[in-house]
């Protein structure tokens, strides 16, 4: 541990996942481009006990509600720009009620955008070097243990979602196995510190996310079934109290109007098979027992805009 400050904090301008300086969100967005702390403060009056941003909970719920866990090309296929922009404006107004004919790739793209637009990535710059050096689930878990509590809570919620996404039956339907999911979500966890390191570190960043998903799935002492159940219950209670969460119905899934695909070949049309909708999750932060050094540097810089 200990070496994280150099590679992540002072390695240059953070870049977007596809290269070039990150453009960042428009400054007037009430949610995109805000820090985790700002998002929690914004929802404090309505959800004082919720430890993760409500918009994160709602987007993962919507993705599940629309059958995203069984939609081929989920998180790789892009929605049409008009669909994306319309849903973005809606969620910025705290309106999370969607039509069951909504293109599931729109909330999936917004989820990635929300995470990539954080002023500081989920894995802070001070922990970047430790993360890309993690060569096992146990090493990835040590990086998680050193995160600030609010980052841990968001990562825990994401891992609850990703754990379901990579279940064998879901992965077979989506054609998104754990390697594909880790590749697509690596820019949502980590921010490559310079263009020079982008190609060099891409595989290491993917492996870190893969190891983190593996730790969440297999390390019962670290991520107990009870903690996962409690996290799901916390979010379910928040969503139940939120009038915008409608009862799930069998959706009609439509393929995206745009055929652009992130990270690979064009998927075939989205499957109409619909995964069971479950309440979506939040976590009790684990104790900071690792000596890796906490949150560290400020990690400002640009944020990724390459997401749709």
Structure report:
- With 308 residues, this protein is mainly α.
- It has twelve helices and no strands.
Kindly list the characteristics that best describe this protein.
single chain; 12 helices; globular
Write the layout of secondary structure elements.
Layout (H helix, E strand, L loop, with lengths): L3 H6 L26 H7 L11 H12 L15 H12 L12 H12 L11 H6 L3 H9 L3 H17 L2 H7 L3 H12 L5 H24 L6 H16 L68
Helix pairs in contact: 3-5, 4-5, 5-10, 7-11, 8-11, 10-11
Number of strands: 0
Q: What amount of the residues lies in strands?
A: under 5%
Order of helices and strands: HHHHHHHHHHHH
Structural class: mainly alpha
How far is it from the N-terminal to the C-terminal residue, by CA?
A: 35 Å
- Which regions contain 5 or more consecutive residues with pLDDT less than 50? 1-25, 243-283, 287-308
Helix content: 40-55%
How would you summarize this macromolecular structure in one to three sentences?
With 308 residues, the chain is an all-alpha fold.
């Amino acid at each position: 541990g200990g070496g994280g400050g150099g590679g992540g904090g002072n390695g240059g301008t953070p870049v977007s996942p596809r290269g070039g300086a990150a453009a960042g969100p428009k400054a007037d967005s009430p949610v995109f481009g805000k820090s985790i702390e700002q998002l929690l403060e914004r929802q404090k009056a309505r959800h004082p006990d919720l430890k993760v941003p409500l918009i994160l909970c709602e987007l993962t719920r919507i993705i599940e509600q629309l059958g995203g866990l069984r939609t081929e090309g989920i998180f790789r296929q892009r929605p049409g720009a008009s669909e994306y922009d319309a849903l973005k404006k809606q969620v910025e107004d705290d309106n999370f009620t969607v039509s069951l004919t909504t293109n599931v790739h729109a909330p999936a793209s917004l989820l990635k955008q929300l995470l990539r637009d954080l002023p500081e990535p989920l894995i802070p710059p001070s922990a970047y070097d430790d993360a890309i050096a993690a060569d096992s689930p146990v090493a990835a878990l040590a990086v998680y243990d050193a995160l600030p509590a609010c980052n841990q809570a968001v990562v825990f919620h994401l891992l609850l979602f990703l754990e379901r996404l990579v279940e064998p039956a879901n992965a077979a339907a989506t054609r998104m196995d754990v390697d594909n999911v880790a590749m697509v979500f690596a820019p949502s966890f980590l921010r490559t510190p310079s263009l020079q390191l982008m190609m060099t570190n891409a595989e290491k960043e993917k492996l870190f996310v893969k190891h983190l998903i593996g730790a969440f799935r297999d390390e019962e002492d670290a991520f107990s079934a009870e903690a996962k159940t409690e996290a799901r219950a916390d979010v379910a209670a928040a969503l139940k109290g939120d009038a915008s969460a409608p009862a799930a119905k069998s959706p009609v899934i439509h393929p995206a109007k745009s055929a652009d695909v992130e990270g690979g070949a064009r998927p075939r049309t989205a499957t109409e098979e619909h995964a069971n909708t479950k309440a979506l999750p939040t976590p009790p932060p684990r104790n900071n027992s690792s000596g890796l050094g906490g949150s560290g540097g400020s990690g400002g810089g640009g944020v990724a805009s390459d997401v749709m």
